[in-house]
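Hey team,

Filing this mostly as a record. A colleague (T.K.) asked me to run one chain through the structure pipeline before their review meeting, and I want the input and output archived in the tracker in case anyone asks later how it was produced. No errors, nothing strange. Just documentation.

Input sequence:
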Amino acid sequence: MTVSITESDYQTLWQPQSLSPNSAPNSAMEVIKISTQWGQGQQQWFNLRQMDLLIQDYVFHQDLQVVRIEASPGCLEFGFQVLGGSYAARLPGESFIQDGPMPSRSLREHGGERVLQVDIHLESATLLSSFLPDQALSLPLRNLIERPGGQPFIHRGVTTVAMQLALRQLLDCPYQDIMGSMYRESKCWELIALKLEQLLAPQRIPPSPLTADDVDRIYAAQQILRQNWQQPPSLLRLARQVGLNDYKLKQGYRQVFGTTAFKDLWHYRMEQAAHLLLQGQYSIQEVALMVGYAKSSNFAAAFRQRFGLRPKEYQRQGGTKSV
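Output structure:
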């Protein structure tokens, strides 16, 4: 069963922990844990120079629909989805840059799925320009730093092998106290540099700018696909439902989510399949049919591509995955 709550109620599910200096040798600014009634896991905040580092590692007991009533003011954020999907509709293996106001929308947490995410928040986008003179800034960087018209900036892409290595080193920080802070800060800048390198890749064709209304409509399209994941509309019909032409929807969806609409839907279907398998109420053949596969062998191959395990192995291991 899915529980629907407001975003303010969602925040109350997280309980700040009192830390003494001796109990926080890794210089955590704050540790916030999920109320045990709702799940297990925590958020760790590290206060570094000119940036904050947030490491989230948690599992909710049940599905949550989080209703955001007001648009979020946002901040300059570099994020890396290591495991699971986040309630902001990011997919495993995605990396992103975003800045500026994010539209109001419903968000989702999937029960039983471990989420591991690393977010880096810079105090200001202008901090990036201090590394280069203004005339050396490329157009994508200028759009990120200046954000003409105050429009939100969104870039999504894959987490590259180099990013994965830096993330693993960051998560397994071997130092404490001041050395730990220095080490984490260096890894944060490394990840920012790798993400900006991806943004500035010469083969990447700069997408046409999206307005805040465009972004809201694209998020609405994703919600429609997820609500109708067993019988989704065609791309043309979906575009009409949200008031965009099909080209704008196709290009904008890739710009906002870093993937195509139906690749995103495939990921979501696989997540639903994993959830159904862990419930133990259905056979593998039944789950395969529910997510659109007539042959269980084809489903098993797709599931392994997504999770690295065959459905039976996933059930046997209780859905656990290594970082």
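Quick notes for T.K.: The chain has a mean pLDDT of 82. The first strand starts at residue 3 and ends at 6.
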